Amino acid sequence: KAAAAAARESAAQESAAKKAASDQAKAEKASAAKAAKPSRAPAGKAAGQAAAEQAAAEAAAAEQAAAEAAAAREAFLKTPEGKKEVANQAAAAKKAAAEQARAEKDAGAA
């Protein structure tokens, strides 16, 4: 049970990391789209286009890095060390839950 909870927690952390990277990529793409809007000055338009292309490239790189990090984490969790880490997280979660239950019981008794 605890191992499953730790695995869910790990998956939730992974999901949060992916979402953060995705949100960052979306923000950078939006910024790039804004920068790419034609301006009245031709020089500004060229600079805006270059900035948009760079922002899009950075967004793609951030998305790729997030995907690679998630894949590496997933691969690590399949190794003996990763399984040990999941077990340790589960034990820590179980201990924290027991301590909280004890504290609530003590607070209720007082």
Automatic annotation (TrEMBL):
Protein name: Uncharacterized protein
Positions of the UniProt region annotated as Disordered: 1-110
Low complexity composition-biased segments: 1-15, 32-74, 87-100
Lineage: Eukaryota, Haptista, Haptophyta, Prymnesiophyceae, Phaeocystales
Compositionally biased intervals (Basic and acidic residues): 16-31, 101-110
Source organism superkingdom: Eukaryota
Species for this entry: Phaeocystis antarctica
Signal peptide: none
